Amino acid sequence: MASVDRPGSGGVLPFFVYGTLRPGEVNHDLFLRGRTAAEEPARLPGAALYEGPGYPYAVERAGSAIAGELITPAAEAYGELLRALDLLEEYAGPGSPRNVYDRVAREAVRGDGSRVRAWVYLAAAPLAHRLARTGTEIPGGDWLRR
């Protein structure tokens, strides 16, 4: 998986969130409350969801999809929110061996079927490979229904 966090390649995008950043979950209140312009249900095709220690990991996998929310940050909060979420998700930058998650741009699907490019944090490659072999998949790809 190639990260697309490079100047000119991603720009200002909404976020697709699928775990503790979803409405009603602890990190939504800590990081997103008061910083969003819109929040709507969405799905991320081409990904599966795995149990983590109190939070999930999304891993790329054809033929699967995960449930989540499409979060559009308030314009004035975007830069601060991007930095805060990168810290939360232990994302140090494209290709960093310290990454727990990689921030990548993917197409999410809104409830009406329209598609939108969004940032999503996927498990970094070494972790993704381990999860695919030995992880516990969340049936149906919905953290809130686990």
UniProtKB/TrEMBL annotation:
InterPro entries: AIG2-like_dom, GGCT-like, GGCT-like_sf
Source domain of life: Bacteria
SUPFAM superfamilies per record: Gamma-glutamyl cyclotransferase-like
Domain Gamma-glutamylcyclotransferase AIG2-like, first and last residues per copy: 15-144
Protein's recorded name: Gamma-glutamylcyclotransferase
